[in-house]
Amino acid sequence: MLSEKLGHISNCVLSFSYNKAIQCQSRKKLCPFWQGKASCKFPGCAQFNFSIFDEPAKDADCVLVKVEVSGQTDHSTGFTFRRRTSKSERKTLKEKLRQLTPMHLHTKTIAAADEQKLIEGNTNEVPPLTVLQKISSEKNLENRLDTNPFLDCIEIQNHQDLNLNFSPLQHQYIQFVAMSPFITHMYSVDQLQLLKDFQKEGKLFLYLDATGTVVAKPKDCKSILYYALCCPVISTTETTVVAVAEMLSSDQSTPTIQHWLTCLSRDYCKMFRQHLHPQKVETDFSWAIIHACIQAFCQIDVHTYLQRCLQVTEGKIKCSFTVVHICAAHMIKILCCKVSKVKCGKPTKDLFLYSMALLQNATTLNEIKALLTDIGTVFSEATHTNCQESINNLKTAIENQSIIADVETEITPTEEADLFTDTTPKTIRHDSPFVRCFEDVLSGTTRKRQTRKAFVAPPNPYYCPGLIDIVSRYLATLPLWTGIMLNQLGRTRDTNSEAENWFRTTKTIVLKNQLHRRPGDFIQTMQEFISGRVRGVKITKIRQGVLKNKELTEIDQPLSQEEKWGKKRQKKKKSKYFNSPKAQKPTKGSFTSPPWAAHGKLGQQSIKLTNTCTIDNLLYILYLAMKTRPFILAEVEQIKTKDRWMSTLLEVFRHFLVGQWSQGKISWLQNIDRFQGNRMWNAFGTEHDFVVSRLDYIHSSERMSVCNNKKCPSPQLQNSCWNVAILCDDFSDLQQSMDNWVDDSRSFPCRQKHRNRKACPGRRTLHIQEVHSWSTLFCDHGC
User: Fold this and answer.
1) How far apart are CA 128 and CA 134, in angstroms?
2) How far is Cα 455 from Cα 84, in angstroms, rounded to an integer?
3) Where is pLDDT greater, at 772 or 749?
4) What's CA 228's distance to the chain center, in Å?
5) Could you tell me what percentage of the chain is helix, strand and coil, using 3-state DSSP and rounding each to the nearest 5?
6) Average pLDDT over residues 42-50
7) Four-residue CA torsion sign, 687, 691, 694, 696
8) Which contacts qualify for 687-692: CB closer than 8 Å, 24 or more apart?
9) Cα(651)–Cα(656) distance, rounded to whole angstroms?
């Protein structure tokens, strides 16, 4: 305490060598009650004598201490000193280290310390990093029941079971522990009850994945991964994710994962007398997890699962088993890695990846066959002529982000004898029924390419047969990564984002980025977090049920209603400095504006318009000008035979007049070459490209200049002017400035050169021959 108080005055590091207080019955009446001597730890520095003359009272708020200093302070030796950390300080540092790492706390204390003290070598306010690490180690060892990380898990399991009352499970949280390989199964009664609630509602969608770095790698052991079986919880206020089962394992094989899921299903069946049957399990592209999920939840192998999937998609049986699906994001990532090794251009790779994304969204076999036909044609045809239609089909589907459901193709039903083989297959690709269904589609396009006669034609920019091999490699597992099985659940695609979200929460929020922990510490931390989250979900469900029942009770019992008065709304006081303007009511002469984007028809073809803001404003303005001022409409009708865009403008006006906004915009855009032959018209660009540049005729004016020299080589010159050079200070003078520009008859030197390169000495007079629509469309009187 004295060292801390003195630290506000001096930067010395005190070391006390003498502390003595007089006894109650001492004869030395004139001696101070307490005396102390201290010296600074820096060599050659000052010494301090402390004394308290009168014994302070127990309830005294202030105690006066006399300090005598002998010598001068000298910290020029370059050493650093500090006092030893006391018990109270160690306790305070332990509490801080529960929230921060030793390095973080060390850096934080340096930032808050007095800079002058640190310069002079006093580090009392900054504990060394080694001291903080030792204190952190002491804190961690307080909760450890055994120094061995594996035996520590068993001790934690036994310690948790001491508080276990009557329970259908054998253990409270850690249900299974194995040493070699290291395996730990973790789930509780509340988590199984949550599974039952979701299964009862028919919304049991599970997400399974694994991550590393959360548990440190023990000696003489492989890396330990953390597996989490997650389930999203959707309420009226928020959407959260809860792990319903977890596992730590140093063995990432199919039997280990299957044993964990089988134990979970066994305990669920023992507890509720019914089987665990999730509607869907989402995983990443890990064959160990895929095999384990299919064998644990469906009780069949992958070969039989693929055969049943084909029967479901052909309508022979209903989907009564768990659907296993691969995350769409993981699948696209794998395809990107495969495509990066193929030698082709970036546009070809992009088109291929977009086409594979369309395959992911496909929900019927007919859609898949149509897409595979186009993919096989586009990337295997060497000439552009033979694959133009397929390229257009793929680009249209990519722009629409959907596939036409009523594709005119048929899938021949598979015979029962072809579904089940007598011999054990070597690989999934060898035995999959989907390979037999769709490999003929890709091979058929290749055969057609080989049998066609060679002729001179432009090359196909997307030609790359190596991409076809990538497609054929994943044909065997179509139900695992496309939407043909998700369609049975009312979905088209799904990702494993729920599991990734749980891992992010675990690492950043629960563990606070303090990774590579001992298994026992990690298990205890996760048990506290999961028990709290599961209880919060349980309370939220109960509250929602109470509110729902309360609403039903009020409806069923109308005589029990009670009159309630709402809170009186206070009128807002008018501001002294600002009053909001009153809302303007629409006038009777207002018009409905065209909506953004549209759908329409061009003959028998359906057209979808997007990004039409480049034409909406200007076409609507021209429509209003022609509707409110009949003389403008009359002049446009007169010049419609001289320019095709004027006749198109009249056609747009007639469609807009009857409220056919989509057809009017299609009439304007159909004359632009970039939209020919497409179903998706994207009008992204500028207003100048789509409207202003098409109105050159009404922007132009014909000008003639006449030279007064009869020997001039070019006595009359005629040109077209595309702008108006005027200067007006006020918009009220705009019309007069325009009239002066039209009536202008300026003269200027001719300077036209003869054949002998001599300039004409005459003067030219400028005349405006024709002004098309400046005076009506753009500078009307009263505008």
Assistant:
1) 10
2) 92
3) 749
4) 22
5) 45, 15, 40
6) 84
7) negative
8) 687/614, 687/615, 687/617, 687/618, 689/614, 690/614, 690/615, 691/614, 691/615, 691/618, 691/619, 692/618
9) 9
Neighbours of 384 (CB within 10 A): 15
Query: Mind giving me the DSSP string for 188-225?
Result: -HHHHHHHHHHHHHT--EEEEEEE-SSB---TTSPPPE
Query: Using CA atoms, how far apart are residues 156 and 144, in angstroms rounded to an integer?
Result: 9
Question: Could you report the per-residue pLDDT of 444-488, keeping only the tens digit for each?
Answer: 555 554 444 444 568 888 888 888 888 888 888 899 999 888 888
Residues 548 and 67: their CA atoms lie apart, in Å, by: 74
Is the bond into 347 cis (omega within 30 degrees of 0)?
no
How far is it, in rounded angstroms, from Cα 611 to Cα 616? 10
* CA 207 to each of CA 133, 224, 479, 499, 501: distance values in angstroms, whole numbers, following the listed order: 38, 20, 17, 6, 11
Cα 531 from Cα 39, distance rounded (Å): 55
| C-alpha closest to that of 154 among 139, 176, 170, 131 | 176
Give the CA radius of gyration of the chain.
42
Q: Please write the tens of the pLDDT for every residue from 66-85.
A: 888 888 888 877 788 888 88
Q: Is 767 helix (H, G, I), strand (E, B) or coil?
A: strand
Residue-wise pLDDT for 361-396, tens only, equals: 888 888 888 888 888 888 888 887 778 888 888 888
173 with 246: CB under 8 angstroms? no
Quick one: residue 47, left, alpha or beta (phi over 0 = left, psi -120 to 50 = alpha)? Answer: beta
Report which of 293, 224, 204 is spatially closest to residue 257, judged by C-alpha positions.
293
Structure tokens at 253: 């094989």
Give dist(CA 268, CA 264) in Å, integer: 6
CA distance 694 to 659: 23
* CA proximity to 68, closest of 44, 41, 40, 37: 37
CA distance 14 to 111: 23
Quote the tokens at residue 64: 């006066």
pLDDT of residue 770: 60
Q: Tell me: pLDDT of 325 over 80.
A: yes
What distance lies between CA 51 and its chain's CA centroid? 68
Alpha helices in 512-574 (DSSP H): 519-556
Q: What is residue 228's three-state secondary structure? A: strand
